[in-house]
């Protein structure tokens, strides 16, 4: 069975262009000195009310997670892009290098959360439909075995990070991976992100305290399998799927 885990470590820093391909973006004015137009990340609206995922995820968590944490990633990513543009225009190699960590962390935070919100739904839960379920059964043995492996990966993340179900273009298989902090899956592993579980404490602490396994067990009740399957279909067909 093809179910080996990957970790987002030791990979090259993502470029601004690669990140921006997966963002909600709009042009910024006043960027004439940059080699290419600066793009501005935009905080997306949630496709449901903050209370819609209760009792699995409380309205307080959703509001704080979206309005504060995700918004901070967006603002800091935009600031880092401006810093990069100025460094590029000035030809300052050290400044260009220095801003890469901020781009990776905050740009990755925006990419990851933009996927995460759509991966959840008040009408979620249960099992995926036939197309995705067949792929899961082929690559993990059964849906229950996949859930066990994905849950174990999420619970086992040390510190803060994400557990992902990704699509491996080279093997045409589904694959579980974990990423530290806000490392974006595709830019750091090449896997197409299909389903992400955020295991930063801000995603669950107000409700589940430090009992991450309970949060991971509960989140399956609101997984939007239609969105996950659509992402797999887009990946297999070569379409571009924005976060």
TrEMBL record:
Cofactor dependence is on: Mn(2+)
Q: Which Enzyme Commission number(s) are on file for it?
A: 1.15.1.1
UniProt GO MF annotations: manganese ion binding; superoxide dismutase activity
Residue ranges of every copy of the Manganese/iron superoxide dismutase C-terminal domain listed in the record = 131-231
Subcellular location field: Mitochondrion
Broadest EC class assigned to this enzyme: oxidoreductase
Record keywords: Manganese, Metal-binding, Mitochondrion, Oxidoreductase
Identify one Pfam family in the record. Sod_Fe_C
Taken from the UniProt entry, a GO cellular component term is: mitochondrion
User: Where in this chain does the record put each Manganese/iron superoxide dismutase N-terminal domain?
Assistant: 43-121
UniProt catalytic activity: 2 superoxide + 2 H(+) = H2O2 + O2
Metal-binding: present as a keyword of the record? Answer: yes
Quaternary structure, per UniProt, is: Homotetramer.
Q: Briefly, what is this protein's role?
A: Destroys radicals which are normally produced within the cells and which are toxic to biological systems.
Can you tell me which family this protein belongs to? Belongs to the iron/manganese superoxide dismutase family.
Protein name in the entry = Superoxide dismutase
Q: What is the lineage of its organism?
A: Eukaryota, Metazoa, Spiralia, Lophotrochozoa, Platyhelminthes
